[in-house]
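Recall that a protein's primary structure is simply its ordered list of amino acids. Everything else, from secondary elements to tertiary packing, is in principle encoded there. The following example makes that idea concrete.
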Amino acid sequence: MPKRTESIYYRNNLRRCRLEALIVSQAKLARLTGICRTTICALENNRIPLSIQHALLIKRALCCSLDDLYEEIPNGHTKSKAD
């Protein structure tokens, strides 16, 4: 089996998904999910990784898929064009 030399990195699209779901405030998403608002803020700013436990709660509240919440970053680049 060939060894994979390239790492795959992900960032989350939580802010985009929240706004598309018409949830204007982080506080409202926090109430809907039971996740602390400061944690929601840190997740949206990619200061902490989006765990699967949080992602499952958030996808249920936003009526989106896990694929919508995560974005693959090619070649390990940490910044996107939007940043």
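Residues 4 and 64 are 31 Å apart (CA to CA). The two ends are 37 Å apart (CA to CA).
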